[in-house]
Design brief:
Shape: globular
Distance between the termini: 58 Å
Oligomer: single chain
Largest sheet: 9 strands, mixed
Number of domains: 2
CATH superfamily of the largest domain: LarA, N-terminal domain
Strand content: 15-25%
Radius of gyration: 20 Å
Helix content: 25-40%
CATH topology of the largest domain: Rossmann fold
Length: 365
């Protein structure tokens, strides 16, 4: 259905690599309205490598501008309620430094749009995504504690405005149901081109952990599902075991078997790449995961020496499972393990534990 191209890159060469990719894919933007959506999940600094690097955003903007579009819009809807932190997030992530002339607070232009989904029949989405001629998504190469990966499909979650994300988490609480909701949202307006920042990726407890990994790639595709499948392979995952990829394939949105995807450039599994704690490799891991689901259910716990008691986790928990006492305390009866709190914490002050660890911690040897 599409092509996935993997390019060697660092941040100093990003613009040159992206221009080559645009030429390779024959991107024609003359007199078109173009929206560029990086992954800006919150007010995180560039050094944290949680958000799309500004050099990659700048490279995409430069390549787009060179093709004489009618209009360029750059923006995202961070994972916060309302639009109070939208511009702050853009500033701290370096986005405003490289595209201030094109930046738009997308949270200010929400419109109701119908959506084919068993969870809701409509969502509030930034109008620009519905009206644009060409949509470019710029996700990060990252793991995700709930959905296993953060890529093109997950980046489209940012088309939704403010508290709409919280509502979706409340309606779709498991990995399987939330993955289904993400595919529903992705289908509202699939990107025409995906440029993934895989220069520095994230492993382990993504999407906002401190486990960074130098990968040295920029991955480009005209099919976001197939790009996500290639990313999963590079991480050491079987794409079939990633629920949102399996569902996307069933809906005809892309192929997820590496052998059926047209690829350009070498694709190799990254050695000793750390998967999210919910993910286990191989058939044995698959069986154990289903047998031990109850014992291994993960819950967030505070790291007190990192916690500033800012209250962001309490304010944005979609099911009201967190209270500050004075550090975050999680109600296990309410917690749905969506890990929104970990994603939004500005200090990476939340870790995850499971019932085995909690029970073991009650005993002294």
């Amino acid at each position: 259905m599409g092509t996935v191209a993997v390019y060697d890159a660092d941040y100093s060469s990003a613009a040159e690599v992206i221009e080559k990719a645009f030429s390779d894919f024959g991107v024609n933007l003359e007199n078109k309205n173009v929206v560029i959506k990086p992954n800006v999940i919150g007010p995180f600094g560039v050094s944290r490598a949680i958000t799309t690097h500004p050099s990659v955003v700048a490279g995409v903007v430069k390549a787009v501008a060179a093709r004489r579009p009618a209009r360029i819009v750059v923006g995202d809807n961070p994972g916060v309620r309302g639009y109070g932190l939208n511009k702050t997030s853009a500033q701290r992530s370096g986005l405003l430094d490289v595209c201030s002339d094109y930046y738009v607070n997308l949270s200010e232009e929400g419109v109701s749009a119908p959506m084919k989904s068993r969870f809701t029949d409509k969502v509030t989405i930034s109008r620009t995504f519905l009206e644009t001629d060409f949509y470019i998504s710029i996700p990060k190469f990252k793991t995700h504690m709930l959905t296993h990966i953060t890529g093109a499909i997950k980046n489209s979650f940012g088309m939704l405005v403010g508290g709409q994300k919280t509502a979706i988490h409340r309606l779709a609480q498991s990995c399987e149901t939330f993955s289904e909701a993400l595919v529903d949202i992705y289908q509202l307006r699939a990107p025409d081109l995906v440029v993934m920042d895989a220069v520095i990726g994230m492993e382990g407890k993504g999407p906002s952990s401190e486990d960074l990994r130098e990968i040295g790639k920029i991955i480009v595709s005209d099919n976001g599902v197939e790009l996500d499948a290639v990313m999963a392979v590079m991480m050491g995952m079987d794409p079939v075991r990633v629920p949102m990829l399996q569902l996307a394939q069933e809906r005809g949105l892309g192929r997820i078997s590496l052998g059926s995807i047209k690829t350009v450039g070498p694709i190799a599994q990254i050695e000793n790449f750390k998967l999210p704690s919910k993910m286990m490799r191989g058939p044995v891991g698959f069986i154990l995961w289903h047998l031990l689901t109850h014992l291994m259910t993960s819950r967030p716990v505070p790291i007190e020496d990192k916690c500033s008691k800012c209250g962001i986790c309490e304010q944005h928990c979609p099911v009201g499972a967190i209270q500050l006492k004075p550090y975050p305390t999680v109600n296990p009866e309410r917690c749905i393990s969506c890990f929104c709190c970990m994603e939004l914490c500005p200090n990476s002050a939340l870790d995850v534990t499971n019932k085995v660890k909690r029970y073991r911690g009650r005993f002294k040897y």
